[in-house]
């Protein structure tokens, strides 16, 4: 029963760390940071049944319809479109998901954005990369400590043999302990090789993994903040929708298209990212409870 309890304690931070890195990677690579629906009917008839298509945008992806013919025809029947998802890098001239007019050459390019919008998108993307990296390092340390802890639980003392030199040293220590019986006997208890390595080093690995999870989680919260600013608040033409609402005068506003809804938060930004930093925080708490910390004793399970 004691082994089962210890095993459950070891697997708790490992399970939370696995959930954290899984959601962190999913949120970073998912297209649905924000979405915008296009409808077939008038705005008063908008409903899930009248959705014609949906565009998605994230720091590294833009998904939507792209016109196949290079020249726009006045007859809409001659224009053909293909739904594509474009992937972009996190840096590089004309290689990111948001570029100025100097690179796009046209405002109809899905990547087009002003300096403010592009700065927010780039910050969101870079913070996601940094956060996922720290959570990944924390996952590695958690797996390492869990592996060594399971060795300590399931490897019997008799299964490991000392070298001849270690046996002689242990015999001398036993004789010395017998001659000086007033000394505590536990000072001469032989440690297994992995115990000799784990006991002095493990607390510092635990500190590192807790730091990585906490810092990575905080970075993901900042990434969400910049993501909301970029893909919802600053995304065109959300300002026109917010300012004019359903007024008929809004139809005359430049850039306001009544065929589509405004950009809204997607599940990657609101759900997956939140699950990533929440799981990372819980993994850090579980690791601090299960494994020893430097100069802290009496409250750890292992």
Mind explaining what this structure looks like?
It is a single chain. With 302 residues, the chain is an alpha+beta fold. It has a domain of 188 residues. 53% of the residues lie in helices and 10% in strands. It has 7 helices and 5 strands, in the order H-E-E-E-E-H-H-H-H-H-E-H. Strand 2 and strand 3 form a beta hairpin. The protein is elongated and about 75 Å long. About 12% of the residues have low confidence.
Describe the secondary structure blueprint for this structure.
Blueprint: H1 2-29, E1 34-39, E2 51-57, E3 61-67, E4 81-87, H2 101-104, H3 115-154, H4 164-179, H5 193-233, H6 238-244, E5 264-265, H7 267-290
Antiparallel strand pairs: 1-2, 1-5, 2-3, 3-4
Brief account:
With 302 residues, the chain is α+β, with helices and mostly antiparallel strands. It has seven helices and five strands. It has a five-stranded antiparallel β-sheet.
Continuous helix count: 7
Beta-strand segment tally = 5
Radius of gyration, in Å, reads 29 Å
* Run of helices and strands: HEEEEHHHHHEH
Strand order of the largest sheet: 4-3-2-1-5
How much strand content do the residues show?
5-15%
**Regions with little confidence, pLDDT below 50 for 5+ residues:** 158-167, 181-197, 246-255
- State mean pLDDT (0 to 100 scale): 76
Structural class: alpha+beta
Distance between the termini: 15 Å
Shape: elongated
Helix content: 40-55%
Biggest sheet overview: 5 strands, antiparallel
């Amino acid at each position: 029963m004691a082994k089962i309890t210890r095993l459950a304690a070891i697997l708790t931070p490992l399970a939370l760390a696995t959930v954290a890195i899984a959601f962190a990677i999913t949120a970073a690579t998912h297209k649905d940071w924000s979405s915008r629906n296009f409808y077939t009917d008038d705005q008063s008839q908008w409903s899930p049944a009248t959705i014609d298509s949906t565009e998605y945008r994230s720091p590294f992806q833009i998904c939507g319809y792209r016109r196949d013919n290079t020249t726009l025809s006045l007859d809409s029947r001659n224009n053909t479109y293909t739904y594509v998802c474009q992937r972009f890098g996190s840096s590089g001239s004309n290689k990111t998901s948001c570029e100025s007019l100097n690179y796009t050459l046209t405002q109809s390019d899905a990547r087009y954005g002003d300096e403010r919008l592009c700065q927010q998108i780039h910050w969101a993307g870079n913070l996601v990369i940094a956060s996922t990296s720290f959570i990944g390092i924390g996952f590695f340390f958690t797996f390492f400590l869990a592996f060594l802890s399971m060795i300590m639980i399931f490897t019997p003392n008799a299964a490991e043999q000392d070298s001849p030199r270690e046996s002689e040293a242990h015999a001398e220590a036993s004789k010395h302990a017998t001659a000086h019986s007033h000394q505590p006997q536990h000072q001469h208890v032989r440690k297994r090789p992995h115990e000799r390595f784990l006991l002095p080093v493990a607390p510092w690995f635990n500190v590192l993994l807790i730091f990585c999870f906490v810092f990575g989680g905080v970075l993901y919260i900042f990434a969400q903040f910049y993501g909301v600013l970029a893909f919802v608040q600053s995304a065109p033409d959300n300002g026109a929708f917010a300012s004019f609402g359903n007024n008929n005068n809004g139809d005359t506003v430049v850039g306001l298209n009544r065929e589509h809804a405004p950009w809204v938060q997607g599940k990657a930004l609101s759900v997956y990212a939140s699950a990533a930093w929440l799981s990372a925080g819980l993994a850090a708490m579980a690791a601090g409870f299960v494994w020893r910390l430097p100069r802290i004793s009496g409250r750890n399970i292992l």
